[in-house]
């Protein structure tokens, strides 16, 4: 059957002037079980035998779609880069750890996670026979192979000894475990799926199946279902985030005539220029000030006020559903424009919309953004129908009366009840997709942190930790004091290092906190251990690590007083 299909394809190509190279033809038989026979396929006079794997758009496909070969190949590439970076560094010399971390995030992580949106199903997947029940995804062996490459990359970043636990490497490098990196990729992909239009092929495949209609006169086992109810990887990824209004594919909008830039000077100069421009306006001109706000509880709200001859004549405010300040700014501008158009004298008056969000003002004048796209399109339609409407940017919190009043109205509206049935905006979902990996990393660290780190009260962050900006030699001593894996007497005795030097030049045993008590440290360099010695030492090694660095540098402790050899 496959050979006849190829013959038909070749005949179609000959009729349409298209040729197919047999050298580029690959054959693969897909099956959930192990294949007993793998018949060849003929392409013209060439017989093509099935390969172990074939590559399509950078994704390696095997016969069972286990993606084992895909992970092996891309993990090998990532590990090669990690070994190269590790060869450039050690515990003393090499580039700053922050620079190596940037190289890892740019050159190792994207290679290692390439195509994960297509193959990674998450921690669980539905059963084939019972789709409503989940079972473990069973890809731990793939995650372990990927973790080996990432571990090498983290050891290239951090100047630590090879016995340092992997848990500590994740915290100190600011790189989460591989399963969290994959989950973050899924969340990003879910947010991208929400930004696709309804007519996009991927968007149509994320829709849940419709209720099947059965005919009473036909037995159900003979009735074919029109849609597959199985929750595919794509559908499960789309379900990670709540549904939102999908944007439309619109053409970029360009101004026919040259317009004044929204911002052409600094904030202070723009504020003074705006006040002078306000005095030169026609007294009958309507100026609408709008603003958006986001409370500490995450409530998005908007407010607007309408001025005529610097006198407020109308105002309004409201609360949005799950949204961001950007969405509130756009909604405030739209509602302010509607209120101005409802005024009796607005037909013959110029209307100027003033808001302090540069991104929202740009979208009001130009191409609408994907988030709150319907709001921008409605605003532009009203502005086009009226004609005499301008959009200006005003600097916020610059003592401009109208803007300050709109800001107060927006903040007061955050206490309004949450509107029922409001869908989240795309900007809100994108923030959730960025926020969830951060929270997951912090939660993981709070439960997985070693005992020696719990007393330091250090938090985990996916951003670059500030310690990585230290020289590698200084950072090595700091991380050794934190992890207890360094040139210490207890460490050497634990691993039976017979040739190690166990005591300081002062005669006391080497310890992580010995630098704070060594009698050979000059008194002018010693640190005051208050309110209690243990608390002061933990603070100097932990959050206030600059004290440890200054003490070791000023006293030359690790070079002269307590050398390794």
UniProtKB/TrEMBL annotation:
It comes from the Eukaryota. Gene3D superfamilies: Ribonuclease H-like superfamily/Ribonuclease H (3.30.420.10). CDD domains: Rnase_HI_RT_non_LTR. Residues 282-415 form the RNase H type-1 domain. SUPFAM superfamilies: Ribonuclease H-like. GO terms for molecular function: nucleic acid binding; RNA-DNA hybrid ribonuclease activity. PANTHER family: ENDONUCLEASE_EXONUCLEASE_PHOSPHATASE DOMAIN-CONTAINING PROTEIN-RELATED, REVERSE TRANSCRIPTASE. This is RNase H type-1 domain-containing protein.
């Amino acid at each position: 059957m496959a050979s006849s299909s190829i013959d038909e394809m070749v005949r179609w190509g000959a009729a349409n002037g298209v040729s197919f190279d047999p050298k580029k033809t690959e054959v693969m038989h897909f099956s959930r079980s192990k294949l007993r026979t793998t018949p060849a396929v003929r392409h013209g006079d060439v017989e093509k035998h099935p390969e172990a794997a074939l590559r399509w758009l950078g994704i390696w496909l095997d016969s069972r779609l286990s993606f084992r070969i895909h992970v092996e190949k891309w993990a090998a590439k990532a590990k090669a880069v990690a070994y190269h970076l590790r060869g450039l560094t050690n515990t003393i010399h090499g580039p700053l750890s922050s620079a190596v971390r940037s190289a890892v995030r740019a050159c190792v992580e994207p290679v290692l996670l390439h195509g994960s949106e297509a193959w990674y199903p998450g921690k669980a997947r539905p059963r084939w026979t019972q789709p409503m029940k989940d079972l473990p995804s069973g890809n731990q062996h793939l995650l372990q192979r990927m973790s080996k490459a990432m571990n090498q990359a983290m050891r290239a970043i951090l100047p630590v000894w090879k016995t340092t636990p992997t848990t500590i490497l994740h915290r100190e490098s600011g790189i989460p475990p591989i399963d969290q990196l994959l989950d973050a990729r899924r969340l990003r992909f879910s947010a991208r799926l929400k930004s696709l239009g309804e007519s996009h092929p991927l968007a149509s495949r994320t829709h849940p199946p419709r209720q099947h209609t059965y005919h009473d006169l036909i037995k159900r086992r003979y009735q074919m279902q029109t849609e597959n109810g199985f929750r595919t990887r794509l559908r499960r990824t789309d379900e990670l985030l709540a549904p939102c209004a999908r944007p439309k594919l619109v053409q970029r909008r360009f101004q026919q005539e040259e317009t004044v830039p929204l911002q052409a000077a600094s904030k202070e100069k723009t504020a003074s220029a705006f006040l002078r421009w306000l005095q030169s306006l026609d007294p009958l001109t309507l100026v609408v000030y709008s603003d958006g706000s986001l409370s500490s509880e995450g409530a998005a709200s908007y407010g607007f006020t309408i001025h005529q001859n610097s006198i407020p004549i109308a105002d309004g405010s409201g609360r949005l559903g799950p949204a961001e300040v950007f969405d509130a700014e756009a909604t405030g501008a739209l509602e302010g424009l509607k209120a101005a158009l409802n005024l009796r004298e607005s037909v013959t008056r110029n209307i100027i919309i003033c808001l302090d969000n540069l991104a929202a003002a740009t979208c009001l004048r130009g191409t609408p953004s994907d988030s709150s796209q319907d709001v921008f399109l409605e605003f532009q339609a009203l502005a086009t129908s009226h004609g005499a409407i301008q959009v200006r940017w005003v600097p916020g919190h610059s003592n401009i009366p109208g803007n300050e009043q709109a800001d107060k109205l927006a903040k007061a509206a955050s206490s309004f009840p949450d509107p029922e049935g409001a869908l989240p905006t795309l900007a809100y979902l994108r923030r959730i997709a960025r926020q969830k990996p951060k929270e997951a990393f912090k939660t993981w660290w709070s439960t997985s942190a070693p005992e020696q780190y719990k007393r330091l009260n250090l938090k985990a962050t996916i951003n670059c930790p500030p310690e990585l900006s230290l020289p590698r030699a200084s950072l090595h001593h700091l991380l050794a004091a934190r992890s207890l894996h360094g040139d210490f007497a207890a460490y050497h005795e634990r691993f039976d290092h017979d040739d190690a030097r166990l005591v300081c030049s002062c005669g006391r045993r080497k310890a992580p906190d010995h630098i704070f008590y060594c009698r050979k440290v000059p008194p002018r360099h010693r640190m005051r251990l208050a309110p209690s010695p243990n608390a002061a030492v933990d603070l100097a090694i932990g959050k206030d690590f600059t004290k440890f660095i200054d003490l070791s540098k000023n006293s030359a402790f690790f070079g002269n007083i307590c050398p390794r050899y």
